[in-house]
Amino acid sequence: MILLDSYNTKKILVVGFGKTGFSSARSLRKSGADIYIWDDNNIFRDLAIENGFTIFEYKKHDINTFDEIIWSPGVPHSYPVPHPIAQEAKKVGVRIKSDIDLLFQGQNKASYYCISGTNGKSTTTVMVAHILKNAGKNIQVGGNLGRAVLDLEPLGHDGIYILEISSFQSELLQNFKPTISALLNISPDHIDRHGSMDGYVNAKAQLFKSQSQGSIAIINDDDEYCRNIKSMILRNSKLEVISISVDHKVTNGIFVESNILKDSFFEKNYELDLSVFNHLYGRHNNQNIAFAYTISKICGIKIEEIIDSLSSFHGLSHRQEIVGQYSNILFINDSKATNWASALQALSSYNNIYWVAGGISKGSYPEDFKLYSKNIKKAFLIGQSANEISDFLNNKNIPNIIHSSLEDATLNAWEQANRDNNTQSTILLSPACASMDMFKNFEERGEAFVSYVKKSFLGNLND
Q1: How many whole angstroms separate alpha carbon 217 and alpha carbon 239?
Q2: How many C-alpha atoms does 235 have within 13 Å on its Cβ side?
Q3: CATH class of the structural domain 100-311
Q4: Which of 49, 115, 125, 436 is deepest in the core (most CB within 10 A)?
Q5: So what's the pLDDT on residue 426?
Q6: Superfamily (CATH H level) for 321-462
Q7: Among 18, 48, 10, 54, which Cα is nearest to 36's?
Q8: Which fold has domain 9-97?
Q9: Helix, strand or coil for residue 140?
């Protein structure tokens, strides 16, 4: 746990009592602060009371009496409706901070490697951590992935915090100064929270605006949103910028061409054949590896150590996870694909796809879908948006059928793949939608798919 001696006797309001808020409240209380809690959900307010915290009351407590407000990223503060506490704090001049700002305040001698983006940030974060840990570096991993940052262990000057940063977190940053900030990609997501695509992009860009002169920005050069942020950095700051591409050559960075990683920044003319990592297949993994390679090289890791660690890294569940293969049919669990950009990456990675998709649509149907549709044999649709996606696919002349359950869709996909009898087929769960219409979260959806596939099909392998 991170303790902050400078908060002893301070009066602090923590807004939101989920994972981040609970962590912040415990850390600050142990540091000697007087803690008050507010959560819009009465269940979490009751949980705060059970843990010995005082509940903030609008009529009883004056916001002007608080030294600071620590805001949880899961609580909207400005959109779609300005939160009354945030409004009042702004009016009276009480500073709103994040738990990441507190971590930096308490551990300012450590280094901070931050990874953000719409898709791939969890895998890249864990991949970087795997490489650095194997190389003997003193690291802690958290943020949007895993533990809340104030639950991490204190690190000295040789320590490295590897943090996954969401747009909900980056928009709150005040005093945080990352050593390295990496932006993997940006595609439409969380518009309901940020109000517009511009709002979402600005939230992502905030991570770079907080960096100090001489810090490093690693930015994808393959999408327009990221290129615009890179241009903003080059105009307005003195950060060192390294470009990453899996689509074209870059002159001052790392790029992938014909499945070969090429280094034009650290080791001029160095090339790494990514096909040797056949467990890390596809364009998305090429991008993840390119970013992980770059961060590792900045950290001084030898190429041999990077290669060894990539060879032993097997990714995260629900992210193009290979469930298994029976005969000529491969099963892939990509339940984490909760938006179209992520699903398109999966659709570009396999041939003869029997695609299981659907859930709660985030809208913004891709204009370039035709580029990916050639790999789809048939779609098997589920969930709240099934009819909507079906209409979209019908306009693209892609065969599809609507099912009432994930199990029925998977079974029908299996039956169709068997009838077609391709040399190689893929049954791909890559929903392009959120899961909460039928499941608690994307993890539960993915686990249901894996369980059904293993029970119904792959069990035959053990007969």
Answers
A1: 6
A2: 6
A3: alpha beta
A4: 115
A5: 97
A6: Mur ligase, C-terminal domain (3.90.190.20)
A7: 54
A8: Rossmann fold (3.40.50)
A9: strand
pLDDT at 462: 43
Contact 115, 124 (CB under 8 A): yes
Structure confidence at residue 362 as a pLDDT band (50, 70, 90): confident
DSSP string for residues in 168-223:
HHHTT-SS---SEEEE----S--HHHHSSHHHHHHHHHHHHHTPPTT-EEEEESSS
pTM given for the model: 0.83
Percent of the chain with pLDDT over 70: 99
Task: With H, G, I as helix, E, B as strand and everything else as coil, classify residue 384.
Answer: coil
How would residue 320 be classed by pLDDT, with cut points 50, 70 and 90? Answer: confident
Q: Which residues contact 198 (CB under 8 A, 6 or more apart)?
A: none
Output the pLDDT for position 370: 83
Sheet hosting strand 11-15, strand order edge to edge: 54-55, 34-38, 11-15, 68-71, 95-97
> What token pair was written down for 333?
């669990």
Contact 203, 194 (CB under 8 A): yes
pLDDT tens by residue, 10-51: 999 999 999 999 999 999 999 999 999 999 999 999 999 999
d(CA 463, CA 459): 7
- Is the torsion defined by CA of 225, 227, 233, 239 positive or negative? positive
